[in-house]
Design brief:
Elements lengths: L1 E6 L3 H10 L5 E4 L16 E2 L8 H11 L6 H20 L6 E2 L2 E2 L1 E2 L9 E2 L6 H14 L4 E3 L4 E7 L2 E7 L4 E9 L20 H8 L4 E2 L4 E8 L7 E2 L2 H5 L3 E3 L19 H15 L4 E4 L5 H7 L1 H9 L9 E10 L2 E3 L11 E3 L4 E2 L12 H16 L15 E6 L14 H11 L6 H17 L6 H22 L22 E6 L11
Length: 518
Amino acid sequence: MYDYIIIGSGIAGLFTALRASPHGRVLLVTKSTLEESNTRYAQGGIAAAVASDDSPRLHGEDTIAAGAGLCDAGAVDVLTRDAPARIQDLLGLDVPFDRQDGELALGLEGAHRARRVLHAGGDATGAHIEQSLCRAIRATTVSVLENCFVTEIVVEEGRAVGVRTLDSRIHRGRFVVLASGGAGQLFAHTTNPEVATGDGLALAYRAGAQLTDLEFYQFHPTALAVPDFPTFLISEAVRGEGAYLRNAEGARFMLDVDPRGELAPRDVVARAIMAEMRHAGAPQVFLDLSHLPEERVRRRFPTIDAYCRKAGFDMMTDALPVAPAAHYLMGGVRTSLWGETSVPGLYACGEAAATGAHGANRLASNSLLEGLVFGARVVAHTTLGAIREEPLTNVEALRIVETEPEHSRGHGGTPPERPALQALMWDRVGLMRDEAGLKAAHAMLGAWQGALPEPRDAVDYEFRNMVLLGRLMTRAALERRESRGAHSRSDFPNARPEWQRHIVLSRAAATTGAKEAT
């Protein structure tokens, strides 16, 4: 019997496990190796108001402005207020943040009014944080199960009491914490690693938890677009240092779209790039660094520099071909400000959770921060003398969509391979959407879901989770008849006041005992 069972080994899972370790027996379960997660590949850094000319208030205002009217003000306040303390925690774990003249070096990214992005190893921030946290975990009494796939959250009398793993073992715990990351592998082009298949969201949904804001998937504007090379992120920090975006004719175009130019919010930049690509009939636009100081750029972005060389480009002399790619899920398992889900005993934090802090569009470099802040709050909440139930975030003006039970979709169809699912999601549920495409995708995903055989191994379970999550995401995108933040519809191109609310999805069956939305 464990006190905490934590699923996932990115920044949220590792930090939660560290904070929980003094308070009881902790089991950390990860489906790959301990070091493998989205966190490992994060380049730009982690945002926090640590400079003398910055403040949590300013950081919060920038977060809300990027969120396109759907941020939960309380969640943003928690995120930005707790940020400096969580940075101190990382410094205490010997995360080697870059320094300049003895002070923490701070970068600038899109939609930030101040330099507040800490980085390590130039553009290897996530790798350094992951390494430091893994080293710290191995020095504790936390039990780690690597290469172990969770197939079910065990719920008894309406409460999460443990997890079932692929070997059919049940591990019991007082608290189950989902920190399983995002779902970029739903799309044909993504910056996410192979492990990002949305398993935690599917587990939570089947256990009766509410999911929200699934329609808001952030597409990073600049991923290296080279045939026969894996999609590779070109950090927003590159534009923060002054790089320009140019179209097929070599002209800058972002200043015609937004006065902030290349540093407009990610949804704005990504859509502008896509428009240029469609206008030119080209698979990319170009990122130009040739006007920047060479020595500074190569020192700041050694990982990107090395990968570009491998792909045949010199980032200082060649225009880099870039295109948008699926990057980050703003939505997830709906939580309170303490990480509680609608199922007692089940918590969520990090990208798997929907805290309300990101709204419809995440501010750059708030993702690693969210994992730290809300992971710490999960442990704080569970170690209070008496557990106090808090309302779930974003309770105002919710639209509840009851989805049919998964097993009701038994009509025909042949289950596809993963590339077919990814192509469907990219084409129909990607950066630009419309009703016809969403309806076609929803019908196809429903048919595929009904045709799936019983899963036998981790690959089967991953794919089942991806099909389910793809269908739920498509349903949410179909319901939201407007364009807002990362959700863009050509048939409803403007934001609409009546849609300044959230779509909550919950399974029609098996919700007994869960807290209901209000």
